[in-house]
Structure formats: C-alpha cells, structure tokens
Amino acid sequence: MDLVQLQRQLVDYRTSLYHEGFLDEQFTQLQELQDENNPDFVVEVVSLFFQDSERLLNELSKALEQQIIDFKRMDAHVHQLKGSSSSIGAQRVQKLCIVFRNYCEARNVEGCLKCLQQVKHEYALVKTKLESMFQLEQQISNAGGSIPV
Amino acid sequence: MDSCNCIEPQWPPDDLLMKYQYISDFFIALAYFSIPLELIYFVKKSAVFPYRWVLVQFGAFIVLCGATHLINLWTFTMHSRTVAMVMTTAKVFTAVVSCVTALMLVHIIPDLLSVKTRELFLKNKAAELDREMGLIRTQEETGRHVRMLTHEIRSTLDRHTILKTTLVELGRTLALEECALWMPTRTGLELQLSYTLHQQNPVGYTVPIHHPMINQVFSSSHVVKISPNCPVARIRPAGKYMPGEVVAVRVPLLHLSNFQINDWPELSTKRYALMVLMLPSDSARQWHVHELELVEVVADQVAVALSHAAILEESMRARDLLMEQNVALDLARREAETAIRARNDFLAVMNHEMRTPMHAIIALSSLLQETELTPEQRLMVETILKSSNLLATLINDVLDLSRLEDGSLQLDLGTFNLYAVFREVLNLIKPIASVKKLHVSLNMAPELPEYAIGDEKRLMQTILNVVGNAVKFSKDGSILISAFVAKAELLRDSRTPEFFPVPGDNHFYLRVQVKDSGIGVSPQDIPKLFTKFAQTQSTAIRNSGGSGLGLAICKRFVNLMEGHIWIESEGLGKGCTAIFMVKLGIPERLNESKLAFMPKVPPNLGPAAFPGLKVLVMDENGVSRMVTKGLLVHLGCDVTMVSSSEECLRVVSHEHKVVFMDVCVSGMDGYEIAIRIQEKFTKRHERPIIVALTGNTDKVTKEKLMRVGMGGLILKPVSLDKMRSVLSDLLEHRVLFEAV
C-alpha cells in the first residue's frame, strides 16, 4: 500500500479509537513523551500494561472461584487495574473498574462476576485495537515514512 | 474894756438866727466828719477801688470843711485871737485842699463815666455770647442727632431698616409732620411712594418722574425747597390752613455696576430716590440752614448705606445661587454615577447573558459543520455560523466601546511577536481577499524589533479592522500593508498637530499604513469616519454590513496605546490610506522575554527544562510508574524508581530533590512514609520535597497531606505540561499546594 495511504489510514484509525472511547487524552500524553531519546516509549508502556492486566485478570478470576471470596484482595487488584488503565488512557477499561470496585464494596458476587466478564471483554478489545495500531505503525516505519502525530 | 478886733456882732447872741446858725454848723460839722468815716469804711471793704488818693484828698477836704464849720461855732460869741488864728488856718487849709480836689476831679470824673459805658458794653457782649451759645448748642445737638442717625443707619445692612430708621429719626430730630421716600420704579419712568413716616397714605402711589420740580431737585445736590402743591408733597390729608414748608432732597442710588474707583465723586448713574420732608402745618416754623445741612448729610449717608445693603444682597444672592447650583451639580453627578453604575451592571449581566448563548450557537454550529451534511444543510449552517459570528463581534464591539468610553478598559500588556501578529492578520484576511480577487501584500521594515511589549490582542484587532475595512471597501486592485518604525521627523506630522509623540529608549512608535485602491472617502466625510455608528451614505457599501463601530473602537484602542490614527484619501474612487501609529515597548533582554512567555512554548522545546534533577518515584503500579518516569525523563530529570515503601525509605537520599509518591498504596500508609522520610533528614535543606500523586482530592486527603508536611498534591492522570509547571513551581517556592 502507498505510504501516504498508510499514514492516512493510521490517523483515521487513531481518531476512531478516540471517538469510540477506547482511548482518551492520556494516550496522547504518552505519545508526546515519545521522542528520539525514547523512541519506543509507547510500545513499552503498552506492553507492560498488557502483562500487568493479564496477571491481574487471572488473579481476579481465581479469587472469584474461591469458596470464600476475599473482597478486599479483589478490590486491591481492581484498584491496580484501574490505575494501570488510567495511566495509558484505556478509558473503557478504567470505567468498568470503577463499577467493579463498587460491586466489591457491596460484596455483590453476581455483580462482580458480571463485571469481570465485561472487563475481560473490553480488555481484549482494546488490546486488539492497540496491537493493530502498532502493526500499522511498524508498516509505516518499514516503508521509510515517519509516523504522523 | 479892751479893744477888740473882731467885728462887733450886729445882733445879740441870743438871737434866734444865731441859734439856728449855731446848730446847723454843728450838724454840718458832724456830717462832714462822718462822711470820711463812711468812705474809709466802705473803701476798706472794697478791694479794687483804684482812686484811693482821690479819696484821701476828698477826705481831707471834708474834714477840713468840717473843722471849719466846727470852729465857726466859737466865733458866734466873743472869741480870742487864738480862735481867730485857728479859724483862719483851717480855712486856708480847706481852701487849698478843695482847690486841689477840684483840680483832681477834672481828671477823675471822665474816667468814672467811661466805666459805666464799659459796663454797658460788656453786658451787650454777654447777651450776644449767650445767643451764640444757644445756637452752637442747637447745632451740636443736631450733629449728635446726625451721628446717631448715621450710626443707626449704618448698623444694619437691611434696606428696609435703613430707610425706616432714617425717616423715623429725621422725623424725631426735626419734629417733622411727615417724611416720605419715593423710589424710582423698575422702568425708571415713575417714582413710587415706598416709605412714609406715619403711613397715612397708601404705599404704591406713583408719580411720573419727569416733573419740573422733581427734575430741579434731582439736578441739585443740595436740599431744595419745594411747593406744598407739588405732587410728591401732596400726601397729607387736605384741610390744613397753612401747610408747613416742604423740602426735598435727592438720594443717589448706587448700583453695583457703577462702582468705578476713579470717578467716585461723579456718579455715572442718574438713578435717584426722592426724600420729602414736611414741617408741621400751622406752626409758622421755618427751615433753618443747619436743619437743611443735616438733611443733606443724612441723605448722603443713606445713599452709602443703601449701596452697602445692595451689595450685600447681591453677594448673598450670588452665594445662594452658587449653593443651589452646587446642589444641582452634585445631584446630577450622583445621578450620572448611578446611571453609569446601572449601565455597567447591565453590561456585566448582558455581557454574560448574551455571550453564553452566542458561544453555544457558534460552538454547536461549528461542530455541526464537521458532521455529514447535505449541501443545502451545509449552506444553511454556514450562514448561521457567519451571522452568529457577526453578532458575536457586534456584541463584543458594543461592550468594548462602552468600557472604553468611561475609561475602564485597560490594556493587557505583554511581550509578543510582532511579526507573528502581522502574519496572523494576513492569514485571516487572505481567504476573503482572494475571493474578491484582491492582492494583499505585507511589507515589514527590517529594523522592526521581533518582539514588542503591548496589548497583542487589541493591536491585532486594530490591524484586522483597518485591513478588513480596506478589503471591504475595495472591489478590485491591491492592498498594501506596510509596517515600520516611525522616525522622529515623521513623528511631528502637520496633519496631526495635537499629536506629539516622544521617542525614548525603551519604547518605539510602530507606524502601520494600509493602502487600498477602493472607493475612497470624500474629504468632508473623513472626520465622520471615527464617530460611532456613522456610515457614509454611499449605496454601494450599505449592504456590506458592519455597524460603523469598528473605526471608533480602533481609534480608542490606538489612543489607549498613546498613538494616533487617521485616514487620507484623495476623494471618491481614488482609494484611501489608513495610517496609525502606536507606542510599543521594547523588551529588555530577549531571554527574559522568552522566559516570560514560557506557557506558549510548544512541548518539544521543553526537554532539559530541569536537567539532572534527581527525583524518586514511588508507585506500586508498574504501568503508572513507568508513565510517570517517562514524563520526568522527558523533562530531563534523573529518575529512580521504587515499587514499595520500604524500598523507598532505603533508597531515598539527600541527593533526591523531589519524591513523587503514589499515596494509594496498600501496606504502609503513604503518609507514614512521608513522616519517616522527614525524620530521616533532620536538616531542612537536605530534605526532599514530597509530592503525592493521587486520584483523590477530597478535603480529608488534603488535610492529611498538610499535616504530614507534604509539599503538594497532584491529581492523576498527569499531563506533561502539568508536570512541568508543578516542578517549576516546586523548585521556585518549595511548595505548591494543588495541581489539578
């Protein structure tokens, strides 16, 4: 595909992510932090986010399978997830975490289970989207062009 | 018998005749002896009798005569020769003395007679003196009356009192029957009876002024006797047999405007009042000279007193008028202030009320433009946007103008890039100009400084307005904008005599000329251009919109910037040139000015803003820790990361200037860590500033932070700009409190 077309595609894609609420301005901030001293900053942060979130989601699933549910520990995990997602600007995930925390406080198992499913779903979505975006960026830099901001 | 020499008596001694002779002689002698005694007695009594010698002589003469007669007693009978001898001697002496006395008396008697004449003369003189004394006393009394009258008159400044007192006192002093004062009316053609002593007659009775007798009185400065039949004197009830004599005197009325110091004796005005004095009827009294003189003196005094009273009245009236005017002015001022305040309140409210919906309309219309629209819809939205923009501009203009009018507008001074302003104007105007096929060119003089101090927004507004006008009023052709530094000789422009700019060291005058080739302006319309709401009545431009406020506002902005704006045109159809000069400051040192507008610096100028600043970041959450590190590294800091509180306490050293701590950590309370860190460093200057990163800014958290002694609080998520400003604040003040 043409370089210009690729770039335009990237811009459109990013705009759509913002529009659909997957990402918020925190993500823009991250992009601003990327410069020639730190060329892969965004990718690194996002990768770390993926690792962290998967770990946390596993922990949460395990906790909800227990007989006696440790809501406090769950709350801590959700809190962590909320912090991570807000740090990179994964808006939808962050919002769900807030809801999740409310259920934990209310010790509502059903609510928690439902919420966990939703969080997993949203996380998967945002992960896919971000990965596609990075792929596009990679294609552009391979073609020798510069990534538009 | 002896012969006797004596004559024999002819008759016998016992004759009766002899006896009678004998007795008479005896008594004569007695009398003669007693007279001198009496004389001596009385002379002794009187002290001043000048003729003693005469008396002595007379006394001697009398005594001798007496002696003679006494001795005669012995000659009646026979007497001896001795007796005859004594008799003879006595007689001789007597003869001598009497002759001498007689001689003496010739001298003395005329003297005695003249004494009598002198006495008569003195008596006459005394009578005359008495008369004169009486006269003098009368005069003195008159004088006393005059003085008293004058004192009475001059002791008051009230006109009525003066006149009334005059009449009363005169009446009393001179025992007048009637005394009246006639004042000239406003028209000056009549004399009106103003005051009378006894008020027998109606006040308000008038007499025409041009009566021969009245003229006679007015033309003389003395008292004039007038006939009792004169109209001014006919104010007594008729029926008296013999009306008393009447005199009249003029009383000059001095006007304020007549006071000329130089010709004080001659009165320039001929306004007189008439004072008429009437003696009692049937008294056969006559006017005496001294009484007339008294009347003259009084009349003069009255004139002076009246003029004083008039002056006083005048000044009191003027003062009252001034006071009234003051009150009225005060009221007007307060009303004006109230009006201004009301207007400002109205404007403030309207400002907000009008702008809010305008913003909503404009914002939403522009958002609407971004969406999918059919061409018709797009056209409609564009029209809405254009109209609402115009309306917004109009609202702003009107509000600005009102604020400019009462001087409450102040310039927002700041350092700005002069070239950028012109480029911006050019960018804004180019689309419209190209639509109209107008060519716009900008010429900036090289000696113009890059940066200047002034009100950027309003300068841009002015330039835009002027250039916009040029575009608006040109159908084709070109527009040339030139900007340069005004030279000193150009500063004194003969066309603007009231503008005296003074160039100085830290300011310069920017001169901008916008020349267009449009419809121009006729010379008589040029002054009107800068007045509000006035538009030239050319039909070609009537539809081009605008409220006519633009140039008025520009003029006020330019004036605020201590400059001048004017328009030159050679006439209709010959284009016009708008020229303005404004005073701008020269920034001191370029790096200082750069520092001053740091907020506008784009982020990629930011790195190395805090080179080498050692900071410690503590956050349990890996992702957020990494993001914070990224932020700080981007700003040039040297970042150490820790993921737990224990690690934090271990790692923190005096080299770390700032510690960023996420306080939503489990395990040890973030606040506790802060306390522990502070305990670790006893010396103040070694202690790092601790900043909390949190998603929570309720009051409780803040209070906790304050109590613990944290340097500040940042709300997550943190943007790059926020972090930068936080760090700069922290390093400057060592404390921030909240950055949201």
Description:
Chain A: GO terms for molecular function: histidine phosphotransfer kinase activity; protein histidine kinase binding. Chain A: It comes from Hibiscus trionum (Flower of an hour). The complex is a heterodimer of chains A (149) and B (740). With 149 residues, chain A is mainly alpha-helical. Chain A has helices at 3-19, 25-33, 41-65, 71-88, 91-105, 109-142. Chain A is built from 6 helices and no strands. In chain A, 35% of the residues are buried. In chain A, helix 4 (71-88) runs antiparallel to helix 5. Helices cover 79% and strands 0% of the residues of chain A. The mean pLDDT of chain A is 87. The relative contact order of chain B is 0.04. Chain B is elongated. Chain B starts with 15 loop residues before the first helix and ends with a strand. In chain B, helix 7 (375-405) packs across helix 12 (550-560), helix 8 runs parallel beside helix 9 and helix 9 (456-472) runs antiparallel to helix 12 (550-560). In chain B, strand 14, helix 14 and strand 15 (638-642) form a beta-alpha-beta unit. In chain B, strands 3-2-1-6-5-4 form a 6-stranded antiparallel beta sheet, sandwiched between helices. Chain B has a 6-stranded parallel beta sheet with strand order 15-14-16-17-18-19, sandwiched between helices. A 5-stranded mixed beta sheet of chain B has the order 8-10-11-13-12. In chain B, 51% of the residues lie in helices and 15% in strands. Chain B has helices at residues 16-45, 52-74, 81-154, 159-173, 212-219, 289-370, 375-405, 418-435, 456-472, 488-491, 539-542, 550-560, 590-596, 622-634, 645-651, 670-680, 699-708, 720-733, and strands spanning 178-184, 190-196, 206-208, 224-226, 246-252, 272-278, 414-417, 438-444, 451-454, 477-485, 507-516, 564-569, 576-585, 614-618, 638-642, 658-662, 689-694, 712-715, 738-739. Chain B has 18 helices and 19 strands. Chain B is of the alpha/beta class and 740 residues long. The interface between A and B is medium-sized, with 24 and 22 residues.
